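Trying the structure run again after the queue cleared.
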Amino acid sequence: MTSTDPKKNWAGNYAYKARGSHEPKDVTDIQEFVRRSEKIKAVGSRHCFNDIADTNGIQISTRLLEPVIEIDETAMTVTISSGLTYGDICPELHARGFALHNLASLPHISVVGACATATHGSGIKNGNLATAVSRIEFVSGTGELVTLDRTEQNDFFFGAVVNLGGFGVITKLTLDIEPAFSVKQDVFQDLPFTRVSEHFDEIMSSGYSVSLFTNWRNKLIDQVWVKRKLADDLPKSSTSVFGSRPATGDLHPIAGISAENCTEQMGNAGAWFERLPHFKMGFTPSSGEELQTEYFVPLENAADAILAIETKREALSPRLLVSEIRTIAGDQHWLSPCYRRDSAAIHFTWKPNVNEVTKLLPMLEAELAPFGARPHWGKLFATPPKELRHMYPMLPEFVDLLARYDPRGKFRNGFLDRLILDR
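Done. Tokens:
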């Protein structure tokens, strides 16, 4: 089961060191609390696996703010209040005839937290979740209510969305929307690694959103999940993806687990928000007890990176629940792992043994280093801070932005000090 203890993260592998918590009910309360606090950090759905949302001061949660979902049909945007999850907003959007362009594998995560960490979903032409943000409102370290808008060509906007919680407390986001659409999801099994290395771009382009699942054994991709937008010219069912075989029933990505909590497969069409995630909102997501790591490599390096990892299968497989490979379009957000490069994300869902996983990470990262791998900010990684900072050309400007909006360092924490600010 996932952790329900608010003093721990979702997976239960990290215990927050914060001295207390605060749950404001309106923006004025947030502003007053920030002004009188020395150290503070916003926390969302607690789905990060490290100390990114921790503080030696007070954690603040916006889950009790009055929920806001305001659709502007002319601008094709939706403005939402902080504290809402994708599971909260997507049914409302769909009921009004609208959709978001992309969703992560879990609808349980907070919208604000997902965007702040560049969490992504999948699709070779789909940007990560932060790319939908067109306007951001937050309470800065001085207690000021700040708004930055993409349409105003503000120089700071692309530094502020993927913010790692460093600028303040996000109170509202405005997201681009589009007309609602339907999706059919087909699953295929036993795709040889040789086909992946030879036809990676074609395989990942075979649907609107494509995921490859493997345990790195037997030189096979165990499952290929292909999510296609419904269209008049789309065949009713798909028979193969480069020699893989169609599944005969719904599958969970992790072998031996019931598919009950997975979104419906077998080519049965459904609303975008009921197919783009891998897991249903009403169930425990994924396996529950797990650890996660993820690395982003340039799309052109993906096949070689996958083959390099496959050579370490004997070390990886015994400690692994499943691995997922996805693609994400490049973007302009300064600290996005997909900054100015189309990317493949190689994800590892580990068995919940922190010591064993921690020992594995340097070896794994050494294999991926030649391919320019950037780690997911919210997951476990061992990349040395000096190397990590060299991966982001706009990092000096980001540090300046932190000082601009949080001059007294109220939102600084061990994560930012260690990885971003200690130069």
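The first strand starts at residue 20 and ends at 22. Worth checking whether this holds up in the mutant runs.
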